[in-house]
Amino acid sequence: MLAPSVAHGLRRCSSSRTVVRTSRTLGLSHALTSFMWLCGPIAGLVVQPLVGLYSDKCTARWGRRRPFILTGCLLICLAVVIVGFSSDIGAALGDTKEECSLYHGPRWHAAIVYVLGFWLLDFSNNTVQGPARALMADLSGHHGPSAANSIFCSWMALGNILGYSSGSTNNWHKWFPFLKTKACCEACANLKGAFLVAVVFLIFCLTITLIFAREVPFKGNQNLPTKANGEVEAEPSGPLAVFQGFKNLPTGMPSVLLVTGLTWLSWFPFILYDTDWMGREIYHGDPKGTNAQVAAFDEGVRVGSFGLLLNSIVLGFSSFLIEPMCRKVGPRLVWVTSNFMVCMAMAATALISYWSLKDYHGYVQDAITASTSIKAVCLILFAFLGVPLAILYSVPFAVTAQLAASKGGGQGLCTGVLNISIVIPQVIIALGAGPWDALFGKGNIPAFGIASGFALIGGIVGLFLLPKISKRQFRAVSGGGH
Prior knowledge:
The chain is mainly alpha-helical. It is built from 19 helices and no strands.
């Protein structure tokens, strides 16, 4: 499971940092940047159910899951290279021939290449994630799905750590001078270096996964249920198979879907705009302003990446504590507590922004000073959010597995439906955050304020509506009782 977990981590850190820097330098507006993130939910809604369905029936001698993991990882490598070299590709297709350090206008050919590469990255990542989670369930044995999700979360944290470590340095263009071109300045060249390192590491991890994650080949129709007359029972096919399963959800699953949706609504503003927030509100930079403002923005994004590195370290350590905490106090209390933690953190983010923008009048660039103490508080906040993030990546899936097990199966269906409750909030945020922020001087503060409200509502709703899963029941599913 090394490659899929690391691929997820590398994808998140590369895409968040890329969206902030590259989209701005290529002339994409804040609202269009938000719209770009629609590729994630669309891919999650269409690709994951389809790939999961076909991987269930795959009869390749390599197994059901590994062929899809191999294909997806290779496409991720291609997409990352396209995104990293989008400025050079755009210049070759007809963009401006001026030096990138002098020209700050739009580069539409590069922007189109970048958007296509970004969408390919998301579709490829979803090609990997569905079979990866299924492979975890296939190989978990007596350890159970909860332990498997904890392992997945820890390896994803490792991928984040490696990605953010490579992205937090400004020296790639010095170590590899050929990365810097007329169309690609220092910041762009540094991203190229980080991406190429990510590609090498992903290929290494993919090789390990293909060699050691051995599967028993699927035998086709002989493993499918049969009718009374001996005929093979037909199964639903296509993406509608997931939606058809809504009527067969186990008791308590609708409440899980509701709280999951509210929880992700509270997280997406941070996931989308974390480093952008550091560059604009904390460092008071402007990616399309003067050279000094651009440098300030880039420095803010770099420090934001370091904050995400701290976040990932805390995420990795916390992932090993989630299962013991759920066994001790129950998964519902752990989940609800994480919502209240996010509520406080998102509110703090908005307050820190106002603190930083002392003379704020609706436009984030009105403030021209920065505070060392504010930067330190921001880094502490980034690290603090690693704890609820570890809960987000594991507890909802463990609760879903328990509910499915109590019904006697259907974990694949429940997981697919759970993904829909993650996709819908992402669509809402992607469509609404950009236009909403534009009303407030193109800043990120309103989105964080709304996120705090959603986290509070999610915590309260979860406290009353989430199913009561006893510690004994959770031990049973975690220990492989099903």
